[in-house]
Design goal:
The chain is an all-alpha fold and 132 residues long. The protein is built from six helices and no strands.
Length: 132
């Protein structure tokens, strides 16, 4: 059950982080953007869930093996990123510049976090289909 919570936290956290990339897609961007706008107020809860479940599995796998898996490392990273503003008082995402067409351009830290969000989604989906 805790593994399922970790996978769901990775998927939802990845969606929250990758939404700037998805908004640029023509047919997919608007529905995903609306969905993430609805869950954005609870991003801190998703981050807390990812941090707790990832930390739990990290401790379990450090002491009883077989080795540390990427699921928990990504979960902990997602949790820290989503809780960054509550931990430090500064925002984790920075807005990119704008191009001549008026649409935002992802660059720097925002692009890195968006790509990490896609990775977190893939890891969460992989965890759903991987036996415990």
């Amino acid at each position: 059950m805790i593994a399922l919570l970790l996978d769901i936290a990775n998927i939802l956290g990845g969606l929250l982080l990758a939404v700037p990339l998805f908004r640029g897609l023509p047919n997919v961007g608007n529905p995903i953007g609306r969905f993430t706008d609805k869950i954005a107020p609870w991003a801190w809860l998703v981050g807390l869930l990812a941090l707790i479940t990832g930390g739990y599995y990290l401790i379990v796998h450090l002491f009883s093996g077989p080795h540390v898996f990427h699921f928990e490392v990504v979960g902990i990273a997602v949790g820290v990123i989503l809780l960054w503003d509550r931990l430090t008082g500064r925002q984790a995402l920075t807005a990119g510049g704008e191009n001549p067409s008026g649409q935002g351009v992802l660059s720097g830290r925002a692009l890195l976090l968006a790509i990490f969000g896609v990775i977190a989604i893939i890891v969460g989906l992989q965890g759903l289909f991987t036996p415990n």
